[in-house]
Amino acid sequence: MTFKALFVEKQGEETSLHLKEITKEDLPQGDVVIRVAYSSVNYKDGLATIPNGNIVREYPFIPGIDAAGVVAESTDARFAEGDAVLVTGYDLGVSHFGGYSEYIRVPADWVVAIPKGLTLKEAMMIGTAGFTAALSVQALEQKGVKPEHGEVLVTGATGGVGSMAVSMLNNKGYTVVASSGKQEAHEFLQEIGASKVISREEVVPEKIRPLGRMQWAGVVDPVGGQTLAAVLPNVKYGGAVAVSGMTGGVNVPTTVFPFILRGVQLIGIDSVQCPMDTRQPLWDRIATDLKPEPVLNVGIQEVSLEELVDVFPKILAGKMTGRTIVKVAEL
After folding, report:
1. 8 A C-beta contact, residue 128 and residue 204
2. Is the Cα torsion angle 156, 162, 166, 172 positive or negative in sign?
3. Distance separating alpha carbons of residues 130 and 319, to the nearest angstrom
4. Can you state the percent helix, strand and coil of the chain, rounding each to 5?
5. Rounded to a whole number, what is the largest CA-CA distance in the chain?
6. CB 73 within 8 A of CB 97
7. How many other C-beta atoms are found inside a 10 Å radius of the C-beta of residue 1?
8. pLDDT at residue 318 above 90?
9. Distance (Å, whole) CA 287 – CA 116
10. At 153, phi and psi to the nearest 5?
11. Do 136 and 166 contact (CB within 8 A), yes or no?
12. Which member of 99, 139, 188, 262 lies 3.0 to 4.6 Å from 39 by CB, making a disulfide possible if both were Cys?
């Protein structure tokens, strides 16, 4: 039996994308074979398609850090044929053939049972981006940031993580301020739960002071860089910032003042190696109290494997709003 997969290949200093017919024998080792119904598009997936993306090290390679489908074969007692499952994180789509393939084979320890309340399609509408957002919201909760403490800022709010975080925070009763550089996306952000939308320039001034006005009870920041440096001085006493991204750069020119004078807590969010005893219960929350219904209704685009090639340049250029999912196979 043959099936389709999207490969990235490298010749010299250039990469190219091609759909190929392969067999299960071409897949890497693992305990569980999954017939993939949907995948999704993340910034990391875009990086995997370019020569200097620092994601893929060996070619040819199948990208796609997310996958949802049904178990086709399993040698692990935890999963049986026909089970609805998803895989995000670990090495999928990085050093292990990823989700842009009609079948994947992965270690059983990477596999999450899709909870009641989520379809395969919804699981990939949420995907790594939504899981990262959920980790961020849960981290703020665990650090004691409550709705009555004041506004919570979400930076990069039109992206996958940002838009999911806006809806999830709104679900939990927080007053959400969404920051975006896209003027045309203000209506979208209000639809998905933002109480107020502000520009990127309002968050990142030309001159960043060591301490500023205490504005935010908490921050979800998938951007990093200058944006993170700019929000830290404006977090309220005892507030927290959950940072999960670096689209704004890896350098954060800040001081210790917010941490030692206001007790601000900076929390790093890792959705890749997040342990299963955190991962599965959080997916259960994503299917219930954190389910980002507004984003699932208005912020999703769907493409086929064949159309996927045209999406990567857009996500790398920051020209996408909400989430894009990939219809991999009809189950």
Report:
1. no
2. negative
3. 19
4. 30, 30, 40
5. 64
6. no
7. 6
8. no
9. 7
10. -90, 135
11. no
12. 99
Q: Is 194 helix (H, G, I), strand (E, B) or coil?
A: coil
**Cα–chain-centroid distance for residue 272?**
10
Residues 6+ apart with CB under 8 A from 207: none
DSSP string, 226-277: HHHHHHGGGEEEEEEEEE---TT-S-----SHHHHHS--EEEE---SS--HH
State pLDDT tens for residues 144-194. 999 999 999 999 999 999 999 999 999 999 999 999 988 888 999 999 999
Which two structure tokens, joined as six digits, stand for 205?
Answer: 């001034």
Task: Look up tokens 């389709």; give the residue.
Answer: 4
* The residue to which tokens 């910032």 are assigned: 241
pLDDT digits (tens, 9 = 90+) for 19-67: 999 999 999 999 999 999 999 999 999 999 999 888 998 999 999 999 9
Q: How many residues does this entry show for the chain? A: 331
Structure tokens that stand for 24 in this block: 């299960």
Structure tokens at 28: 């890497």
Residue found under tokens 């490298």: 10
Location of structure tokens 């390679």: 61
Nearest-angstrom CA–CA distance, 328 and 253:
42
Q: How far is C-alpha 78 from the geometric centre of its chain's CA atoms?
A: 26
pTM (two decimals) = 0.94
Task: Count Cβ neighbours within 10 Å for each residue of 35-68 and write b for 16 or more, e otherwise.
Answer: bbbbbbbbbbbbbbbbeebebbeeeebbbbbbbb
Angle between helices 276-286 and 120-142 (to 10 degrees): 110
Chain mean position to CA 309? 19
